[in-house]
Amino acid sequence: MSREMLLFTDMDGTLLDHHSYSFAPAKEAIAALILMDIPWILNSSKTLAELSELRAQLGQAHPVIVENGAGIAIPCGYKHSCWRMPDDGLHEQDGFLLKKTGRSRDDILHLLQPLKAQYRYTGFADMSQAKLSELTGLPAAGVAKAMQRYFSEPILWQDSQQAYDAFVCQVEACGLSLLRGGRFIHIMGGADKGRAMQWLLAGYRHAGAVPVTVALGDSHNDLAMLKLADIAVVVRSPVHAPPQLPDHPHLIVTEETGPAGWNRVVLQIIHDTRSGSSPVEGSSRGESNE
Predict the structure, then answer these.
(1) Topology given in CATH for the domain delimited by 105-188
(2) Which one of 152, 177, 204, 278 is least enclosed by Cβ atoms within 10 Å?
(3) pTM for the whole thing?
């Protein structure tokens, strides 16, 4: 008997190529998700402005999680057979119903201000668009969208590891949290990708529906999401080692990097879930379990 499926995916380095930001190698699996009306949730460090543009390019019509879980955006009028809208502090903005799961960026910047003189780092708030474009390879329009942040502050660390350890202690003492991403360290107000995922799962799990949850990511800031999924897929990166998730019962590490690895494993999991075979056993064929 087939089961419903719910997929959560990171973007940079996972669905999008680390260097080119292309999702072209994943088009076959994306088409399959759309054809079968499987909800697939973008769970990213990107801003709502960035993901709004990407949703249109991808043909993605479902909710998105932004800024590493600090915000959730549900399209106004969104409907799906498994979905029931949670009634929990939502407000409308730019065609979405928004849920804030942590502090605002203004609060975060205020709490960080006393630390600026003690440590060497550069935040998005300190960067020009030209500098951020140099660091990320994004065009001017993409940089402008990346800087439209409401819930988090990414920083580029330029000090020692010893200084970073002390910085972490002080930031956490302010009630904030840090996550290492592929390029930047993200400072947030107690939110993460896993907590946002849990909030959305409550909307998809009603009337006895218990979909198979799949999560795909490539770096440390994806671990909270990966730990919660029935099937956790670590997508190999061309620039860093896979994050470690040793205790997960159904862990897959792709052989191919980025969107090519994403495409292969998503197609296999869809096939096994829809055919009624074990999605865990079937999805590991041809991949590396570590």
Answers:
(1) Threonyl-tRNA Synthetase; Chain A, domain 2 (3.30.980)
(2) 278
(3) 0.87
